[in-house]
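Late entry, evening session. Most of the bench is empty. Finally got around to the prediction I had been postponing all week. Sequence below, unchanged from the version circulated by S.P.
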Amino acid sequence: MVKEDSPWQTGNYPGEHQAKLVTPEVAAKLIKKAKRPLFVGGSLLLGDLNGKPLIDYAMEIAKASKMPVVAVAHTKKKFLENGFHPTASMPVINLVDRLKDPEWKGVKGEGQHDLVVFMGVLYYMGSQGLSTLKHFAPHLTTITICRFFHPNANFSFGNMDDKKWTESLNTLIKNLKGG
């Protein structure tokens, strides 16, 4: 396993601005403090973590934080099968393009988002999208709550095994609920 704060894929070095490691407690505080947070759920949410579907974690996080959800890739169907209606569905590339536009009114038409939480987006897609946002969307703060460190985010969970990731997601949910 690579170091906790090293890019998970070799060669993915972000230059002089690298993500800060974030704990679940601090991530919850950042989400609660945001005026217009957004949750982005990618195709890796269709997998499971220690026998629990990852999409269940995503829905719990979205409900606890009251964040609107954008289903990217082919996750919309799975959200709907679970009785959860994402606010929007679009390819991650289109979403990144909109997020870098400070005039975009957001997925609910209430104004541009100030914080975006990514979970389950394919690593190489997330890396490129986060790099774009880092350079062209200074109005945004980005957080990744994936199992692997994303150096192009503002804040990222570190590289971790499944047990630690399960604990981190459960702690995040608990803190979003106020516990």
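Two things to note before I forget:
The first strand starts at residue 20 and ends at 21.
The beta strands are 20-21, 37-41, 48-49, 52-53, 69-71, 88-89, 115-119, 141-144, 155-156.
Will write this up properly tomorrow.
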